[in-house]
Amino acid sequence: MGSGSYSIIYNNDVPRDYLIKVRKMKISIIGGTDGLGKWLARFFKNKGFDVIVTGRDVEKGKKVEEELKVKFTNDNIKAAKEGDVVIVSVPINVTERVIKEIAPHVRKGCLLMDVTSIKEIPSKTMEKYAKEGVTVIPTHPMFGPTAPSFERQVVILTPSKKHMESRWFNWLYNLLKEEGARIIIISPEEHDKIMGVVQGLTHFTFISLASTLKELNVDIKKSREFASPIYELMLSIIGRIIGQNPYLYADIQMFNPRIEEINNTFLNEAMKISNIVKKRDREEFVKIMKDAAKHFGSEAKRGIYYSDKALFALSKEIEGLKKNINKEIAVKNLESGNIHFGILKNVEGDYIILEKNGKEEKFNLLRSEIYFNSELKELKDKYLPKKYYDISVLFRENIDENIILELLKNIFDIEIIDIYKGDKIKNGYKSVTFRIYSYKKDELNKLKSKFIEIIRNIGGELRYENKRFY
Question: Where would you tag: which of 128, 208, 225, 341 has the fewest CB atoms within 10 A of its CB?
Answer without folding.
Answer: 225
